[in-house]
Amino acid sequence: MQTDEQRRFLDEFATLLAGWNMPANAARVYGFLLFQSDPASLDDIAEQLEISKSNACKAAKLLETAGHCRRVGERGTKRVLYVAREDFGTPFLLRTASLGSLGRLMTARGPKVAEGPAAERMERLASFYETMQSAMEGIIDTDTARAEES
After folding, report:
1. 50 dihedral zone (left: phi>0; alpha: psi -120 to 50; beta)
2. Of 48, 52, 20, whose CA–CA distance to 35 is shortest?
3. pLDDT in tens, 17-43
């Protein structure tokens, strides 16, 4: 069973990730996987988090799709186990790419839809998005290399 400290961690983790539009069950499953040393089955997840196996499965699938966890097989069985990914940047790849797209949109279409101070604001925003994309790509590359070494 979970300790009081683990429960508090999961509650705070879920609250923080709600701001990123992550459903509470998914955030709790992700937090749970982060403090597990071994892969966890859906039965383990459901039991430990006191949620239905169906909710555990939905949350795990959402996390897997978003890149926060991955499935691992258990030799000789069809049982599916889940682990938190070690390459933490994976979930941010799509968001990082969208920053570049936003920057290109502002640069290409901004001058056609705005003028004066509004056009200048769009130029600054485009530059901000491009800078953010570049910085995030560098961080993700560094993290991916770290994950590959471990």
Report:
1. left
2. 48
3. 999 999 999 999 999 999 999 999 999
